[in-house]
Specification:
1 helix, about 210 residues, 5-stranded antiparallel beta sheet
């Protein structure tokens, strides 16, 4: 009886580990933060092309739109794109897996943005007809030159206190907390990290 109770409690614990929290929903994107326990499978992709931004290191079993599966070792901050018909991810490791799922509600675009608008140290992670995703890192006390963002989902891997200087000289201060997932409108600005922590953000711009 005791053994059966332990198995039951273990099953409840695994079930409780799988959570999906909506963070952004508008006419262009839907974004969720999801947590999987070992052997857990992610929730429905809602039939949308999407990217996944990993918040933890781990191992996932990924199923492509042609039904082929692959086991991937992923790192925190890594981004992968998946077609609308791709199968769900499964946590194939021994630890909890956390990620942000961002689905795109618009049609595929023929536009290629490349590095247009980028600050010099931005690094492209994914670009195709649905999205441009890139890595932003600004050390504490540093300033990046004027650059331009499109409307975007911001995934803060390491938060910081920021100051944005607009082309007309107007200043806007803001703070990003580690773990925040936000929708930000496009803007041209000079970016300053005025805090004491390094900024690390993944920006995901729908096309």
């Amino acid at each position: 009886m005791k053994k059966l109770l332990l198995v039951y409690l273990s099953a409840l614990s695994c079930a409780a580990a799988a959570t999906r929290l909506e963070k952004v929903r508008n006419e262009r994107v839907i974004a969720y933060e999801e947590t999987l326990g070992p052997a857990e499978t992610e929730s429905s992709s809602e039939g949308l092309p999407n990217v996944v931004v990993f918040l933890t290191d781990g191992t996932v079993l990924a199923t492509a739109d042609d039904g082929k599966t692959a086991t991937l070792a992923v790192k925190r901050g890594q981004v992968i794109f998946r077609a609308a018909r791709a199968g769900p991810l499964r946590d194939a490791g021994t630890a909890e897996m956390r990620f942000v799922w961002i689905g795109f509600r618009g049609r595929e675009s023929a536009e290629v943005w490349g590095t247009k608008g980028y600050a010099p140290d931005y690094r492209t992670l994914v670009e195709n007809g649905y999205v441009r995703a890139y890595d932003i890192q600004i050390p504490a006390g540093h300033t990046e030159p004027q650059h331009t963002h499109h409307d975007r989902v911001v995934v803060a891997l390491s938060g910081a206190d920021l100051r944005h200087v607009l082309p007309d000289g107007h200043q806007e201060d803001s703070s990003l907390k580690t773990g925040e997932i936000l929708w930000r409108l496009g803007q041209t600005h000079v970016g300053m990290n005025i805090g004491k922590t390094d900024l690390w953000v993944i920006a995901v711009e729908p096309k």
